[in-house]
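User: structure tokens for this one?
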Amino acid sequence: QVQLVESGGGLVQPGGSLQLSCVASGSVFGGNTMGWYRQASGKEREFVAHVTNNGRTTYGSSVRGRFTISTDYVKNTVTLQMNSAKVEDAAVYYCTFRGSPDYWGQGTQVNVSS
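Assistant:
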């Protein structure tokens, strides 16, 4: 059993930056791949980024070059640094802990507007 607690969502202007964090607790010994998905209003959930327990990162095409994912293995925390925000980045962002089954956070709202 894994619990995920997210923070950092809020309002950001186009071109601005925002940082999301997710802390995992429970059965997290040894680490796992962690990542982020997002779901905009009326749309399906979209892959944003993953980082493996050995540090390899993968990004969705819509955020590559603008967002950076990182993890703190000691704190069991994954962070998403969002730069050069676009209006289309507005969504609920969900943290995920890859396993059997996968675990999900409650989601944190990101709004992008001027």
